Amino acid sequence: MDRMINWISDRFAHRPWWMNFLMVFCAFMAFIYMPWDFLVKPAAVDEEVWFGLLLRGGWAKATEPLHWAIYAAGAYGFWNMRSWMWPWAALYAAQVAFGMLIWPMFHFGGFGGFTLGLVSFVPFAAVAWALWKADAVFQSPRPGMRERYGDWALITGASAGIGAEFARVLAREGVNCVLSARRKDRLEELASELEDSYGGETRVVEADLASPGGADALARAVEDIEVSILINNAGAGYAGRFEKQDLERLAEMVQLNCTAPLVLTGRMLPSMISRHCGAVIIVGSVAGRQPLPFHAAYAATKSFDLLLGEALWAELRDQGVDVLVLQPGPVATEFEAVAGEARPDPSADQAVGPVVESALDALGRQPSVASSWMNWARANVNRLLPRSLLVFVTGELMEKQTPEEMR
Ligand SMILES: NC(=O)c1ccc[n+]([C@@H]2O[C@H](COP(=O)([O-])OP(=O)(O)OC[C@H]3O[C@@H](n4cnc5c(N)ncnc54)[C@H](OP(=O)(O)O)[C@@H]3O)[C@@H](O)[C@H]2O)c1
Asked: 119-151, pLDDT tens digit by residue?
C-alpha cells in the first residue's frame, strides 16, 4: 500500500496544483462524463458547444468522439507531461474561453447575456493564459542517462539491431558500454565506432546466453565494473507449428529470452540497490501480449519478460532502480531472418531509432511501453476479444507469416 501511495504522490509532485486539477478534470471527462454523454445520453437532448456555436442532436453526437479524444489526450499529456501539450492545451482552453464568452451573448442576449459571457470567460481565459505561460514546465528536459544512473551500461545482443542502437544512443549520452553477444568481430567493430565517435570507454564480452552458464559468465566478466544500466536485449524468435519445431532450439530460446534476463538482472541488482540508483530495461515484444499460434513459445517467453519486468518495476522503484519492459512490434533488424519468418510486407517495419527512443523516454515513468501508437493499439485491442476468438485471429495472421514447410 505504501509503495502505491508513494508512486501516486510522486506522479502528482511533478506539476503545479492547478495542473493536477486540470489532469483530474480531463481524466473525469475522458473516463466518465464523455462515455456517458456519447453512449447513454439520448441524441435528442444532446448539446455541444464548439467555438461558441451550439450544436444539437445528431450534430452534437457526431462531434462528441472528438471531444472525447481531446480529453483523453489531455489526461495522457498531463500524466506524462508530454511536450506537445504546449501550445495545444493552451489553445484548446482559449477556444473554450471564447465559446463561453460568445455563446451566452447570442443565446440570452442583452446585458444579462453579456455579463454571463464575461463571467464564464474569465476562469477559462485564466486557465488558457496559465497553460500558455507554462511552456517551461512541459519542455523541461530530463538529465541524460549518465547523470541519472551512472557511468556504465551493459547491453546484451549489441552486435545487431535494437541492441546496437541502444549502445549508440547511450554512448552518445556519455555512458561507457559493455557490449555483449556471440559475434565478437561485430562487437569490436561497434566498440571502435563508439570510441571514435563519442570518446567513451567500451568493453567487449563474447557470451552465448542460450547456454546454461552464459549469463553467469557474462556477469562475472563485468564484476569489476559498476554497471548502473542493464539492457536485457538479446533475444530470438522461432517461427513454426509447435510439433515441427526442434525442441532443443526451443529450450535454448527460453534460456536466451527468459533465463538470461532473469539471471543478469539478479546479478546486477544488489549493487544498484546499494547505490540506490540504476536502470534495467528488458526488451519484450507486443508478441507477449497474447497467445500466438505458430510463434507459441516465443510469445510465451515475451509474456514472461513482460510480467517479470512490470512486477520488478513495482518492487524496485522505492529502491532507486527504474525497470522498464520495452515492447516493440515488427522492427527492421535481423530478427525476422533469424526466426525464420516470412512476413508479407517487411517494408512497414519500424526503424530501430524510434524504438530505442521510446524506451529511454518511458524509463522511470512507467513499467512498460509499446514502441509506437500502432503497437500500443496492437497490444491493447486484443483485450476486447474473448480469448478463444483472439487465438484464432492471431493464428490466422501468424500462419501467413510462417514458411510453408513449417505450417
Ligand atoms: N525485430 C523485431 O521485429 C522485434 C520485435 C519485438 C521484439 N524484438 C526483440 O528485440 C530484441 C532484439 O532483437 P533485434 O530485433 O535487434 O534482433 P537481431 O537483429 O536479430 O539482434 C539480436 C541480438 O541478440 C543477440 N543474440 C542472439 N542469440 C544470442 C545468444 N544465444 N547469445 C547472446 N546473444 C544472442 C544477437 O547477437 P549474436 O547473433 O551475435 O549472438 C543480436 O545481437 C529481442 O529480444 C527480440 O525478441 C524484436
From this structure: 999 999 999 999 999 999 888 788 999 999 999
The C-alpha torsion from 218 through 219 and 225 to 226, rounded to 10°, is 140
Active-site residue numbers? 298
pTM score, two decimals? 0.91
Instruction: Tell me how far the alpha carbon of residue 210 lies from the centroid of ligand 1, in angstroms.
Output: 12
pLDDT digits (tens, 9 = 90+) for 224-247: 999 999 999 999 999 999 999 999
Out of 177, 182, 325, mutate this one to test ligand 1's pocket (max ligand atoms within 8 Å of CB): namely 182
Cβ 260 under 6 angstroms from ligand 1: no
Going along the chain from its start, the domains and CATH numbers come out as 2-139 (no CATH), 145-406 (3.40.50.720)
Rounded to 5°, angle at Cα 230 from 226 and 236? 145
